[in-house]
Specification:
Order of helices and strands: EEEHEEHHHHHHHH
Distance between the termini: 30 Å
CATH topology of the largest domain: DNA polymerase, domain 1
Structural class: alpha+beta
CATH architecture of the largest domain: Orthogonal Bundle
Largest sheet: 5 strands, mixed, barrel
CATH class of the largest domain: Mainly Alpha
Number of domains: 3
Number of helices: 9
Radius of gyration: 17 Å
Helix content: 40-55%
Shape: globular
Strand content: 15-25%
Number of strands: 5
Length: 201
């Protein structure tokens, strides 16, 4: 699984860029703001990667300029109903205008803020709030170990679903494990403790 690339931007298109790493070219899809911020052709970039099986066959690579972006993408894709990778990228493209404000609007259950600032439809705003209201930090004082800044939640969820566990079961085990391990626990610790809860007794 490809998780990170560092290389040279060979070409840029409307939705993707080709990044050359050690003589191999990888087509990577970005949300619009991240692609605009990628830099000109010939520049060296570092991107975090999420892989997704394409409906047309093969694997599509989605790129992110920071761990925060990737963590939010993973959460949008895995937690919001009927949301695949492409739709999650569309949502991310709006949310990255201000990720702290997006998190605050969702946690504060404020659909008007999501529509006015980020351009979501009223229906989508309600869907995002319903799916994410308990999964994003509500402010700087939150003690949740699953802040988008750390990406621990997304890393743990990706690892467990990659092992074949259902997303709902994995989330429940992760949240129990994190509560026991404390806010300083890293993703590896959370995964290990969550596996104990998911393993047959």
């Amino acid at each position: 699984m490809i998780a990170y690339l560092r290389g040279r931007v060979v070409t840029r298109g409307e939705e993707s860029a080709v990044i050359e790493v050690n003589g191999l070219g990888y087509e990577v899809f970005f949300c619009e703001p991240s692609l605009a911020d990628l830099g000109p052709e010939g520049s060296t970039v570092e991107v975090f990667i999420a892989e997704s099986i394409s409906m047309y066959g093969g694997t599509a690579l989605y790129g992110f300029r920071s761990r925060d972006e990737k963590a939010l993408f993973d959460l949008l894709r895995d937690a919001v109903p009927n949301t695949g990778a492409k739709k999650a990228m569309d949502y991310l493209g709006k949310a990255v205008k201000s990720m702290p404000d997006f998190a605050a609007a969702v946690a504060g259950k404020d659909p008007k803020r999501l529509t006015a600032i980020f351009g979501f439809t009223a229906k989508t705003a309600d869907k995002l709030i319903s799916a994410l209201k308990d999964k994003l930090p509500s402010g700087p004082g939150t003690s949740s170990p699953f802040k988008a800044e750390t990406g621990a939640y997304a890393q743990a969820l990706n690892a467990l679903t990659g092992l074949g566990f259902r997303a709902g079961d994995a989330r429940a085990a992760i949240e129990e494990a994190a509560a026991e391990a404390g806010p300083a626990a890293d993703a590896e610790t959370i995964i290990r403790q969550a596996l104990r809860r998911l393993s047959p007794k």
